[in-house]
Amino acid sequence: MNKRIKKKRWLEIKLAECLARELLLMSAVAEQNDKISEQAKEITELRSVIERNAQATNSRFNYLEKKVADKVSKNSWFSRK
């Protein structure tokens, strides 16, 4: 077999291997991108839940602090009986 033909065949095989690897890597990258987008959605959902929980907790503490402050404060001596 001619040297050029051997070299051409070898290069064609290597090119096919490279294309197969590229396809495999591209599919892996696409899969990772899908996972990343899913995780980003989950993170935004969790942040919104955390924000709602913090607001609910703060409003409850504000309510309790107001109640305690009302109980602790003394009545004015004009309204005492």
Cα distance spanning the termini: 120 Å
The class by helix and strand makeup works out as mainly alpha
Total number of beta strands: 0
Give helix and strand order, one letter per element, not per position: H
Task: Please tell me how large the radius of gyration is.
Answer: 35 Å
Query: Which range does the strand content fall in?
Result: under 5%
Helical fraction: over 70%
What's the tally of helices? 1
Mean pLDDT: 90
What sort of overall outline do the alpha carbons produce when their principal axes are compared? rod-shaped
Low-confidence stretches: none
Biggest β-sheet strands, sense, barrel: none
* Total separate domains: 1
Description of the structure:
This is Phage protein. The protein has one domain (1-80). It has one helix at 3-72. The protein is mainly alpha-helical. The model has no long low-confidence stretch (mean pLDDT 90). The longest helix has 70 residues, at 3-72.
Short descriptors:
81 residues, mainly alpha, 86% helix, Phage protein
Layout of SSEs?
Layout (H helix, E strand, L loop, with lengths): L2 H70 L9
Protein name: Phage protein
Organism: Streptococcus azizii
In short:
The chain is mostly helical and 81 residues long. The protein is built from one helix and no strands.
